[in-house]
Amino acid sequence: MKFITKSRGPLFLAIVLFMSVEVLPAIGQDGDTETIDIDFGSTRIGGEGLTAAERRASAYDPDDDELPTEDNIPKIGSPKRLPHLHVLAKRYTTGGMWPEACARYDQIVDESGEEGVATHPDGQKLAGKSFLKCAEKEAVIGKHEAAERLLKKSIKFFGKSDYRHDTVRNNMLLESYRKKLRNRDLEGALALYKEYQSKREDEDERIWFGEQLSKLAEDAYKQKDKEMMKQYISYADQIAPRNPDLRRLKDRLETEEKAIPMAIAGGVICVLLVAFLSWFGRWRGRRRIESASGGQLGKKNKYLVDDD
């Protein structure tokens, strides 16, 4: 005891005081006793922190009797309605439920205007993100007009357009000109392709577009559709003139063009040669007959002609 008192007296007294204040039962005025609990799970004591449910609850109005859900939305006119909608919208955004989040932010705008979105500290940021994600989904399934409307909403709440909005729009341009190419709308496809390339140069896409035009030209050649073939070749020359398939096709056409005059000339030569050989054969036959008759055949024929 001497050792404890002399060397560790202050520490011992502090422990006793702590136990008497925080742990031991406290005596009430009426003689009843109550136990003081220590929250070992809270960040105050150094535990693991709040659970997911506790973190969600910390964002709610502590005066509410129950957590906000879809089933207990306050009626229009209630001061708790807008905060309630914000809680739902944020919950959907956090969970990646973008259509539901966009629907809630649209509802907030309809009921409280764009100012209503700004009443939440993260409202504008979360609304901008939600509308951007909804735009991406609409763009993927080809609903480009709906996607563009959502992009405009997103930009409005973000305050400016950034690379994420540009990416969605570029992807829609790419899909649009590919669709026009599949439908053989060459002028429309080329116009959208040039617009796409003006926003960002895409070498891979240029090569791909050139390959598609070269394949279309080859198909038209096989189908003997010279007009479409020439049109495809003309567009391919603008996009990818060094495409190997295109160059092979053009070389083949050039060879065929040279072969036609040569074939005509060869045919004429053959006709003349045949005529000459025919005449020469007849002439040679007569010469043999004359030689065999001692030259009388020609004279006889002459007399016969004179008699006639």
Low-confidence segments: 1-7, 21-50, 53-60, 302-308
Helix share of residues? Answer: over 70%
Strand order of the largest sheet: 1-2
**How much is the average pLDDT?**
79
Cα separation of the termini:
174 Å
The rounded Rg comes to 47 Å
The sequence of SSEs as H and E is: HHEEHHHHHHHHHHH
| Number of DSSP helical runs | 13
Under CATH at level 1, the class of the domain at 68-161 stands as: Mainly Alpha
Q: Per the principal axes of the C-alpha atoms, what is the gross shape?
A: rod-shaped
Number of strands: 2
Largest sheet: 2 strands, antiparallel
- Would you give the CATH topology of the domain at 68-161? Serine Threonine Protein Phosphatase 5, Tetratricopeptide repeat
Q: Beta-strand level of the residues, as a percent range?
A: under 5%
Quick summary of this structure?
It contains 13 helices and 2 strands; from the N terminus they run ααββααααααααααα. It is mainly alpha-helical.
Task: Provide structural commentary.
- With 308 residues, the protein is mainly alpha-helical.
- Among the domains are: 1-39, no CATH class; 68-161, Serine Threonine Protein Phosphatase 5, Tetratricopeptide repeat.
- It has helices at 2-7, 9-23, 52-58, 81-94, 98-117, 123-140, 144-158, 163-182, 186-199, 203-222, 226-239, 244-293, 296-307; strands at residues 26-27, 33-34.
- Helix 4 crosses helix 6 (123-140) and helix 6 runs antiparallel to helix 7.
- Mean pLDDT is 79; it is low at 1-7, 21-50, 53-60 and 302-308.
